[in-house]
Design a protein that fits this description.
alpha/beta, TIM Barrel, eight-stranded parallel β-barrel, 16% strand, binds NADP nicotinamide-adenine-dinucleotide phosphate
């Protein structure tokens, strides 16, 4: 397993991270605790030592399952936990709130649910546009000085917002959406991270399963699964993306004897100081892990990947549909 240090924190993790949003169930059509625990343990035992979670994933459920899997499995010492703060919720709706008082409460709730006394990486989930970023940054700086967190990160922040954050404290990581078909960060966030020495935790590395090669035109998503609303999965656009995936699968197989999933995760790792967050919730989904490390895409293949995408996807769509609304309105 390839390793990386998170920014200037000294915290070393694997370059593949397990994403546990789906393990929380909310927006992924429910969860299965036993399967989730088995997936987390399989991840750590296979060298995927970074586990990314958040309080909002299942409104505490994902953190609880991560805490149970690691502590009862005796694996806490081998894993690095990345969680987040700055989102509030009520009646299944999510709002931004990164005021220092809320962060003080959130860290205690997360430590309890995760059954630990320190968070390896603590990230602000979405910028709270109604709280000065400097106040939020100061709150995290205090937590680091108190030894409750080891590294500090932000997610879904612009370079300007990160500048404001870094004026107050050392920032180690940024977590934006990034995968073969969602490349918006190449314009600003990725070059910024490189120049500022930040590690990039790329989320949606499989584009919510599209790049697994297992999504078909017929597959229906049940309950609250967010792919019912994701424009890339709608009948108007899904055939374009599936045609691209088929082309990428053929290319990966012919050039390297790899699958499209392995190609997609390798592509993220070849882009810079990156970590690929892989959202898996069943142990068998992690079987391909051995096929991702220790090879690189050559220039010709990279050009061919881009040509396939240009040919198949006429107007690439950004992942903006996931952004939560601002502060909780009074009375909600
Ligand atoms: P993802 O990793 O791109 O895709 C997850 C999907 O891939 C799941 O639906 C799963 O399918 C499918 N999958 C995984 N391995 C597979 C395999 N071997 N075969 C077939 N299908 C497979 O999406 P994500 O979970 O949204 O993103 C990864 C992580 O990034 C999240 O879990 C979370 O930790 C983080 N994230 C952060 C933010 C943020 O705002 N900071 C936003 C989004 C995500 P099934 O549905 O069949 O299980």
């Amino acid at each position: 397993m390839e390793k990386i240090i998170l920014g200037a924190s000294g915290v070393e993790t694997s370059r593949i991270g397990l994403g546990t949003w789906a393990i929380g169930g909310w927006m992924w059509g429910g969860t299965d605790e036993a399967e989730s625990i088995a997936a987390i343990r399989r991840a750590v035992e296979s060298g995927i030592t970074l586990i990314d979670t958040a309080p909002v994933y299942g409104f505490g459920r994902s953190e609880e399952i991560v805490g149970k899997a690691l502590s009862e499995g005796g694996l806490r010492g081998e894993a690095q936990i990345a969680t987040k703060a700055g989102l509030d919720w009520a009646d299944g709706k999510v709002f931004r709130d990164a005021r220092p008082a809320r962060i003080r409460q959130e860290i205690e709730d997360s430590l309890r649910r995760l059954r630990t006394d320190v968070i390896d990486l603590y990230q602000i989930h979405w910028p709270d546009l109604e709280t000065p970023i400097e106040e939020t940054a100061k709150a995290l700086d205090d937590l680091r000085r108190e030894g409750k967190i080891r590294a500090i990160g932000v997610s879904n922040h612009s370079p300007e917002q990160m500048d404001a954050f870094r004026a107050v404290t050392r920032l180690d990581t940024v977590q934006p959406p990034y995968n073969l078909v969602e490349r918006e960060i190449e314009r600003d966030v990725l070059p910024y991270a490189v120049s500022a020495g930040l590690t990039v935790l790329s989320y949606g590395a499989l584009c919510r399963g599209l790049l697994s090669g297992k999504v078909t035109a017929e597959r229906a998503f049940e309950g609250d699964d967010l792919r019912r609303y994701d424009p890339k999965f709608k009948p108007e656009r899904r055939p374009q993306y599936l045609a691209a995936v088929a082309g990428l699968q053929t290319l990966a197989q012919a050039r390297y004897g790899k699958s499209v999933l392995e190609l997609a995760l390798r592509w993220v790792l070849d882009q810079g100081p990156t970590i690929a967050l892989w959202g898996a919730r069943r142990p068998a989904q992690l079987d391909p892990v051995g096929g991702i490390a220790d090879w690189k895409l050559d220039a010709e293949t990279r050009a061919e990947i881009d040509a396939i995408l240009r040919r198949c996807v006429s107007q690439p769509l950004a992942p903006t549909f996931m952004a939560p609304p601002l502060r909780r309105p009074a009375g909600v």
